[in-house]
Design brief:
Elements (H helix, E strand, L loop, with lengths): L11 H14 L3 H15 L21 H25 L11
Helix pairs in contact: 1-2
Length: about 100
Amino acid sequence: MSMKRTYVYADPEDLAIIKEAARRRGVSEAEIIRQGIHLAAMANRVWDEPLFSRVYEGPGHTLAKEEARDAVSDASRTAAGARVGDRSERPGARRPSAGW
């Protein structure tokens, strides 16, 4: 990958931190700066697609705390039931006792 030279102004305190990080990691100060530029660029990037591209049907309003708790609880019970059912279908599988 080809590089292009650029100039930036930095606080002396930041440069001291960069120098220490480079020494500690055994890389050049320029490498630390390049990594920082890359992280800043990615953090501020505007993506072409939304993060969640699928659309899900919902109640049409923001769920109240209790509604969200109930939805998660229902989904958890459904998933747990599928796991327990799968386990009990195997030959020799034991069902968990009520004392768990």
